[in-house]
Amino acid sequence: MHIVVLTKPVPDPAAAAERLGPDHRLDRAASPAVVNANDEYALEAALKLVEASGGEITLLTMAPAGGADTMRKALAMGATRGIQVTDPVLAGSDVRSTAAVLAAALGELTFDLVLAGADTSDGGGGVVPAGIAALLRLPYLSNAARIEPDAGSGRVKVRRITPTGYDVLEAPMPALIVCTQALGEPRYPSLKGIMAARSKEIAARALADLGSDPSGLGGAASTTTVLETRRPPARGATTVVRGTPGEGAAAIVNFLATRRII
Amino acid sequence: MFPVFAEVPAYPLVFVVFWGAAVFFGLVMARHLRVFAAAQASGPNPLADIPARTLGLIRYAFIQVKMFKDPRAGIMHFGIFWGFVLLTIGTADIVTGGIIQTILSLPFDGLIWAAISAMQNVVAVITLAFIVWAFERRLISKPARLTYNWDALTILLMIGGVVGTELLAQAFEFAAYGDKPGAFIAALLAIPLRNLDPGWLQAIFAILWWAHIAIVAAFLCFLPFSKHLHVATAFPNIYFRKLAPRGELPAMDLEAEDATFGVRTLADLGWKDMLDGFTCTECGRCQQACPAWNTGKPLNPKHFIMGIREMSVEAEHGLPLIPNSAIVRDTYGLDDTIKAATMAKPIVDDAIPFDAVWDCVTCGACVEACPVLIEHVDKIIGLRRNLVLEDSRFPAELNGAFRNMEGVGNPWGQPPASRLDWTKGLSFEVPIVADVAAAGKLGELDVLYWVGCAAAFDERNRKVARAFATCLDAAGLNFAVLGQEESCTGDPARRMGNDYVYQMLASANVDTLNRYRMGEKTIVTACPHCFNSIGNEYGQLGGNFRVIHHSAFLRELLADGRLRVIDDGAAPRKSVTLHDSCYMARYNNVVAEPRDVLGAVPGLDLVEMDKNGKNTFCCGAGGGRMWMEETRGTRINAARTDQALSTGASTVATECPFCMTMMKDGLEAAEGNAGGEVRAIDIAELLAESLAPKELAGRQLPVLQ
Questions:
Q1: CB-CB contact of B176 with B7 (8 Å)
Q2: Chain A residues with beta carbon closer than 8 angstroms to that of B402
Q3: pLDDT tens readout for residues B201-219
Q4: Which of the four CATH numbers 3.30.70.3040, 3.40.50.620, 3.10.100.10, 3.30.559.10 does domain A2-221 have?
Q5: A185/B399 Cβ within 8 A
Q6: CATH value at residue B58
Q7: pTM (2 decimals)?
Q8: What is the mean pLDDT of residues B522-532?
Q9: Where would a tag sit more exposed on chain A, N or C end, judged by fewer CB atoms within 10 A?
């Protein structure tokens, strides 16, 4: 089985150093980058599938050149290789552009499944996977809490979380699946994994390599524009409840009840 | 032929019986060594540090200083040990055809040998008394730390038998054949025996004499299989003890190809680790001191070390006493080498349960307690290294701590940009090294204050940082902090087995400190874990720094008169107990310093807990336990809090940010502290509260005595 996992380097949320430039674009130099946390869950799910039934995992990202360092961390978890699409034209791409580029890169590959995280912690658009599925006419299975591919029948079964429970969906492979954290905590890379990742291949692709027409892509062709950004208002003062567990519980219930939360 | 033993029937048989047993002993011991040889070659160089090692041998093996931490057991053991050693002169004489006696009888008309005989008589009686005491402990008073089995009783019976038969044989010998000079107690015992039939006397003498030799031979044959083997192994084990600072974990080469990272199997242990196993006597001092075991957790340091020994013994199964040569093995198709499978068996879940590996707080109480200098902690870290670096097998909570240290350089996962938040609201500026360097004023810097993550990010510990910085400012010192250039020293990662993250953080810190040439300056820190890493471990990565704990630094400032306290007699008296940090007191011998600082604070009366100084009891946060849930047994900090509260002190002084957190939490949760009156306060805070106004303490002013 060949699984492609979409990953993205994002500013480390823990560093809280995320900063926008004057053009409202992310200042990538301001913060250390990590693999988008939701993508790690998708990668973990892919690793478990490959461990169970064999196969390979290719990581695919669209990122500036420095993104390869971040991708090594994901390779250390156990992915087989990486592909990074980098092109100066792509700076400032919107979700439409991103989906088109990733779809073009996927068009070069043969695969059984594409796994993606629900959204990214920087842009937070959450529609790139759906865009890719639409462009490549792949079955789109979102909110996955369990993934059961069957190589024999060439079909994949997905348990999809819904507000009231779950649906079980089935689709022919290749298919694109959007993963949730219910699939399990991402593993911590072993030292052997880290060392092995150093020599794993990360293929660099420019738009020309993909045969894509740059005119409709990148910041210049963006169909959305950020006009203004603002910080959320500072949180109000924290209320600390002290006392015995019983008193504490009563105070919290009271707090919630007066606000009609419960 | 052997005039000295003319009365002993069939005396020459001694050579067969004793030396036969001695050869057997040698062969079994050599078989142990074959397992050692199958282990990693790593171990101390036998030819290095001979003076220090010899002194250690005298101190720990012959004077047995550690044994006297438990004075009763210490005296008892000392008595039996030295009794046994002195009586061995007699045995040695017997098994060598009386050569010792013959030679020593030549000068002074045999006076020397007579004196030795008299001494031996006295020693025999004393030793027998100590053996009776030992029996009393094993059969009647039964201290909880001991392991009760037939092995120990057999050994005691044998020792008693060796001493008793020798003395009695002598008494019957004197009664039958007449007294010999010196042995006055045997002569006294012989007086009532003289009335017996001489034939009986001779027969009983012969039986007792041979019983003595038989027991000695049996002892030699039994010893290599017994826990009592320490009589042979304690000496090399003490001689080859860890001479590096106790807080310096073995260096690790992470670039080594095909290496096993850390310790997985017996083969990954060094020979000294196996020697540790064969030296353990199951005395249980380690388990008695272990905070994990004392709070009902699965970790038992004694069982761990004995487990390693059992695995080593298992690896010997099927090995012949006399090794066959390769030719013989090939010719007869013999398979009598060490089975690869026994050497490849994982230690975790065999000698020690997985959970127990993670229960260790690395407080070193076991190492401190062990009379034969067994190193438990380094081995446990070795196991953790393998679990983390090769299998990513560790408590789930650590995932976050590792990622935080790797990502943002601190285990709390706080943004590095908030590293200086603790300085907000101080009445003075806290300079940053980068600014000082940019202004070209590094040369004027007196001291670098290494703040540490806990003091930078934890709300309670930020107050400690503020108090300590206030002391530095009041002393008129030119100090600076690294600010955002500081990151976790890596200590928690290293203690949790993640040497990869440790080396990443530590190397970066070494580079930063070297860039500012801090090797020429003094670094002060209020965190014992930072202190230990920077001072004892950064040398492995090319960082040689002079680091001083804030307790020692404050004491210096007080002694120099740079810091002055207001002592107008108005301060109300309050009692304080000091909770020693393991990494200061036990690992780095810093015991008096914090006490001297407390002594300088007016109105404080220090009351000690039973477990203080080098015998301190961990708060429960060491070894990365700060970032793990404590789900097994009861809470270690609660146990320590109870010990602190039982002193009746109104304040628990701390000297470590982790201890602060644990003691604070413990005190807030303790039933014995219902009103929350007893609080945890760092020594720097206690001192800062009573400092004289800055203008009187500054060094610019003339010194007023």
A1: yes
A2: 188
A3: 999 999 999 999 999 999 9
A4: 3.40.50.620
A5: yes
A6: 1.20.950
A7: 0.90
A8: 97
A9: C
